[in-house]
Amino acid sequence: KQEVTQIPAALSVPEGENLVLNCSFTDSAIYNLQWFRQDPGKGLTSLLLIQSSQREQTSGRLNASLDKSSGRSTLYIAASQPGDSATYLCAVRGSGTYKYIFGTGTRLKVLA
Amino acid sequence: DGGITQSPKYLFRKEGQNVTLSCEQNLNHDAMYWYRQDPGQGLRLIYYSHIVNDFQKGDIAEGYSVSREKKESFPLTVTSAQKNPTAFYLCASSSGASRWGTGGYEQYFGPGTRLTVT
Fold first, then answer.
1. Would you call B2 an interface residue with chain A, using a CB distance cutoff of 8 Å?
2. Tens of pLDDT along B30-65?
3. Using CB atoms within 10 A as the burial measure, which of A1, B61, B84, B99 is most buried?
């Protein structure tokens, strides 16, 4: 059964710092991996999606990498800003299924 | 603007009553999903549908029911059999065509409905 873990659960950094969020999954037979942002009391906003055949994906200050063999993905945020403060979640879709399994998220606070 | 709408934003019900949460999308997506989110926990899948008139149970389907009579609509009913219905409910949809290329199946989410049962 696929399990998705995100470490750390919470992170606090000064503005301007580059940071890395981690996502681990137990079953490497995935179709894709998606990173989301969630603000308090709101729905999820899609940030990046990496298909199983890709190694990385970039959007603005965000870069996500995928290493299927080791069951890991990282989300790199460059030059963090207070507006980046939110909870970041990763989700994995398994091969041959429409189901997505979510991690519990990393709560990020960027201090001005 | 294309997107997913959920209504209402807040819902209050008495214990023992059934309640239906609305989810509508105009993205022309084939697949739709219902998730439940509790404090400190990740999203848990309740039901999903990858095509009209067909749906599958997720990991926590007990006490919930759905229908998928139209491509754009996927309502969720929380029945009185659900033991702990108070939660934040999120609807999502996806399709094979996305900004990340063919077969991307990027999930898009609605704003959520917060249900409180007392």
1. no
2. 999 999 999 878 899 999 999 999 999 999 999 999
3. B61
